[in-house]
Amino acid sequence: QGVLVPGLGTFAVVHEQINGTEEVYVVRRPVFQLDMDMSCLQELVFPTVMIPGDVEIMPLDYWWLSQTNSLPPDMVRGCVEETILLYSFQLRTKQRPAFTFKNIGILSCQDNVLCMQFHSSCIAGLESRDIWVALLLT
Fold first, then answer.
1. Residue ranges of the chain whose pLDDT lies below 50
2. In the prediction, which pLDDT does 136 show?
3. Domain of 54?
4. Could you tell me which residue ranges the CCDC81 HU domain spans (predicted)?
5. How far is CA 121 from the centre of its chain?
6. How many angstroms separate the Cα of 42 from the Cα of each of 6, 71, 77, 101?
7. Quick check: helix, strand or coil at residue 59?
8. Domain tally for the chain?
């Protein structure tokens, strides 16, 4: 399943098959597909990530988020939207802040390359059997 964060992109978990020298590994790994206004990204390079069509994409659940921090869903939605607008503005004005997602990873821009770096703990939480293969792929 994937989660669409409007104005920013989609987080999803994909299964990937890797042929090793002695065996075939199938690992689950996180991916992020950027979906921002392209005018923000004119000078930036970012990896093209395609989420397979069979992955179900759900919208960000503002009600669930509101339960985790005791704020009303409308206020949570407003905070998320304003944060994404601020990040877009910073990218447009050539500022390059890192955007941290707690327990997931960091969306950062280095040398005009915008990419999502997932925390190893996030990857390890998705893949219990072949953690090292998933870490290397991600």
1. none
2. 56
3. 2-136
4. 57-128
5. 14
6. 20, 36, 27, 24
7. strand
8. 1
